Amino acid sequence: MSGIRGKGGTGAPGARGGGLLVAGTTSDAGKSVVTAGICRWLARKGVSVAPFKAQNMSLNSFVTREGAEIGRAQAMQAAAARVEPSALMNPVLLKPGGDRSSQVVLLGKPVGEMSARGYFGKSGAPSSGESPYAGGREALLGTVTECLEELRRTHDAVICEGAGSPAEINLRRTDIVNLGLARAAGLPVVVVGDIDRGGVFASFFGTTALLSAADQRHVAAYLVNKFRGDVSLLEPGLEMLRDLTGRPTVGVLPFAHGLGIDEEDGLRVSLRGAVRESVVAPPYGADVLRVAVAAVPLMSNFTDVDALAAEPGVIVRFVDRPEELADADLVVLPGTRGTVRALEWLRERGLAEAIARRAAEGRPVLGICGGFQALGERIEDEVESKAGTVAGLGLLPVRVRFAAEKTLARPVGEALGERVAGYEIHHGVAELLDGADEPFLDGCRVGSVWGTHWHGSLESDGFRRAFLRRVADAAGRAFVPAPDTRFGELREEQLDRLGDLIEEHADTDALLRLIEEGVPDGLPFVPPGAPGGTA
């Protein structure tokens, strides 16, 4: 065995690991899961591997041990690779604050807000005194490639994830995450297509044919995702695609239900439907527990409720109408990038009044991060919404002032007699006033209303079970948490499933050759190519 097949992460001076870019014909084609699957497959082979995404747009983020904020998808991929997540794995994170602007997080730290036109439209380096992102995406290419090269110096292989489609010809000039990165770093590209949507052959061909000749030289292979049925019926089409493009298909992955991994851009749920990963197992006790999650605008880290959905007998739904709270045993106000906007939404829809009635009746409500802030008495916000002083729901004795500096932390503590670990990502600073029945992590409880800034706390198994027992008691339900549900083990099982998909349904020898040897020679040009002047 040669190359990464036997290196095992020696980290020799001057050594440079192999690399691969996983692109997609569309958003949600499966880039995140394929990247994670390749990482887990390689890690199981003893290969030192790391994930990488140059630029991510997501409201689902995570805090690394060094206090850096990165996309949750990259944290999940790091877990698949069995390495500690770091800011190097996601140097640019964009957190939307509305339809036209995003907070820019550079190397794990927020550096300011920028409009889409400013970020995607600017070119050239920043002038003296400007912030590091002021030159737009082109100015970030150096930072991005330096992070990738550092990972390649310290790992046998780096598996990169693209964003959207590489054939977004309107954005190609300033691209740093798809072919712009592949050309800068000399990476081969595997393009993933979602056959469940239909038109996968046209998508593969059209994606390639819209690229310039220089870009096409990096597109080495295709991979079909979410296939249902007999693969032999697909094979003639794959051969015709190879004849048309000169590129092989290196795998046909079957449609897999309930993978339960952290995706980046959109909900894995219908906003008025059940969480897809909810366990179908019967309840451990006599009753189920029903959890309603308010689908607030700019919802962030909705993955907080995944641990609830993993419990047998807990049914988690996202809702947007007050009548949908009627049969809920627990209402969750999740995190949001727009606390003031979320409050307006809750009031406009009648949800604020319904939640207040629940609290008066002693029925459980949990607020997490922005949801915790909304439950307080008052919010002073000159940072996020710039709305000034806004009245909260008044259900917790808390006043919140938004600070310019973001809190990024990985706290550990105790609640309900159990150890709890979590992570914090917020600008709001909470002042706890008199009147709380008891402290709750960094927040408090009043009656059946609970609030904390800590994301991820429900992943702590003992604490989650203790909390659900309190909820069941308050709701009058004969619900008993299963004593053997271990969320961390469930996540590991799901990551192994991703590795199995690659190992069993992809041409792993072909993938290894691409990772080790780089861009193949002699890949033909597929006309017509990019429009004039596009990279």
From TrEMBL:
Superkingdom per UniProt: Bacteria
Regions crossing the membrane: none
SUPFAM superfamilies: Class I glutamine amidotransferase-like (SSF52317), P-loop containing nucleoside triphosphate hydrolases (SSF52540)
A Pfam cross-reference name: GATase_3
Annotated active site: 369 (nucleophile), 455
Domain named CobB/CobQ-like glutamine amidotransferase: residues: 290-461
Family indicated by similarity: Belongs to the CobB/CobQ family. CobQ subfamily.
Biological role stated in the UniProt entry: Catalyzes amidations at positions B, D, E, and G on adenosylcobyrinic A,C-diamide. NH(2) groups are provided by glutamine, and one molecule of ATP is hydrogenolyzed for each amidation.
Stored InterPro entries: Class_I_gatase-like, CobQ/CobB/MinD/ParA_Nub-bd_dom, CobQ_GATase1, CobQ_N, CobQ_synth, GATase_3, P-loop_NTPase
Keyword Cytoplasm: no
Transmembrane helix as UniProt keyword: no
Gene3D superfamilies, sorted: 3.40.50.880, P-loop containing nucleotide triphosphate hydrolases
Lineage of origin: Bacteria, Bacillati, Actinomycetota, Actinomycetes, Kitasatosporales
Entry-linked HAMAP family: CobQ (MF_00028)
Domain (CobQ/CobB/MinD/ParA nucleotide binding) ranges: 21-263
Annotated organism of origin: Streptomyces luomodiensis
UniProt keyword list: Cobalamin biosynthesis, Glutamine amidotransferase
Pathway in which the depicted protein is active: Cofactor biosynthesis; adenosylcobalamin biosynthesis
Protein name (Swiss-Prot/TrEMBL): Cobyric acid synthase
